Task: inverse folding
């Protein structure tokens, strides 16, 4: 075994927060979507949707469809902890990204 499921939880939180914060800052800096055509929910919803599309498909597929193809050393509780950590990280990444964007931009 590689470690405890809490290691996967913390790794998921850090990865989710980093990826989401980068997308929030990047898309707000580039002005995607434009301020004229989008409200605040759309300007924060797009980075969250993009980061979720990058973070969640592989662990969900390993948890459900590819159950037989994954390594026998990866347990279900590790995948559950990873998914929970990434969800918490996305929420924290939005807060971190907005805070950094208001300070930097």
Result:
């Amino acid at each position: 075994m590689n470690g405890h499921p809490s290691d996967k939880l913390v790794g998921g939180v850090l990865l989710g927060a980093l990826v989401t914060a980068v997308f929030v800052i990047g898309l707000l800096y580039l002005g995607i979507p434009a301020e004229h055509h989008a409200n605040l929910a759309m300007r924060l919803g797009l980075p969250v949707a993009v980061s979720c599309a990058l973070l969640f498909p592989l662990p969900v597929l390993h948890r459900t469809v590819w159950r037989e193809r994954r390594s026998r050393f990866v347990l279900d509780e590790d995948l559950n902890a990873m998914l929970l950590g990434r969800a918490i990280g996305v929420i924290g990444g939005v807060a971190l990204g907005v805070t950094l964007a208001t300070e930097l931009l």
Summary: The mean pLDDT is 91. The longest helix spans residues 76-104. Residues 5-104 form one domain. The CA atoms of residues 20 and 60 lie 18 Å apart.
